[in-house]
Specification:
Order of helices and strands: HEEEEEHEEEEEEE
Distance between the termini: 55 Å
Number of helices: 2
Number of domains: 2
Shape: elongated
CATH architecture of the largest domain: Beta Barrel
Strand content: 35-45%
CATH superfamily of the largest domain: RimM
Structural class: mainly beta
Helix content: under 10%
Number of strands: 12
CATH topology of the largest domain: Elongation Factor Tu (Ef-tu), domain 3
CATH class of the largest domain: Mainly Beta
Largest sheet: 6 strands, antiparallel, barrel
Radius of gyration: 19 Å
């Protein structure tokens, strides 16, 4: 366990370098396995040998011994977690991977966490607001702060016209009256 503590200090970082793939729901079995709920649309790429579990403001690498996937759940056995008591210590913790290992999205697509803080403009160039959050699920939406209220812009459909990562801008074409709701 001392090696784990040394590694914990090496990964004391902010979340900017990581993206969340899910969180540990509970223990699974008696030998230290855990069940991880994967966020919508996330999976565990086969190339990763470790997952980073967030303990407070630290990202601690836990090396994968083996895992299996069923739907949006992963059943994982880590090398350094061998008892149910050890597994209980990570229950409820977020599970992350380094952003640099995330696959590039398809042309015109984007990851929700990468557009937080982007400026949203209409097709005429007027500023609508700033992306505060991206809700995921069956009907994903941009949550934009517009004149001290939240506006929900659906990601499905023809509303998102362009995403310019270099300018941190999203151009939208909204139906008349959407901003007045």
């Amino acid at each position: 366990m001392p090696t784990l503590l040394v590694l914990a200090f090496l990964f004391l970082m902010d979340t900017d370098g990581y993206y969340k793939v899910g969180y540990v729901i509970k223990t699974h079995g008696l030998k230290g396995e855990v069940t991880i709920a994967l966020d919508s649309g996330r999976t565990l790429p086969e190339v990763h040998k470790a997952l980073f579990i967030q303990h407070g403001d630290q990202f601690v690498p836990h090396f994968i011994e083996h895992h299996s996937l069923r739907g949006q759940k992963a059943f994982v056995k880590f090398e350094d977690i061998s008892t149910i008591e050890d597994a209980e210590q990570v229950a409820g913790c977020g599970v992350f991977l380094p952003i640099k290992s995330r696959p590039k999205p398809a042309k015109g697509a984007f990851y929700g966490d990468e557009v937080i803080g982007f400026q949203v403009r209409d097709h005429a160039g007027s500023v609508i607001g700033i992306v505060a959050e991206v809700s995921e699920g069956p009907n994903p939406q941009l949550i934009v702060h517009h004149h001290e209220k939240e506006v929900l812009i659906p990601l499905n459909g023809p509303f998102i016209q362009q995403v310019q990562r270099s300018k941190k801008e999203i151009t939208v074409d909204l139906p008349e009256g959407l901003l007045d709701i």
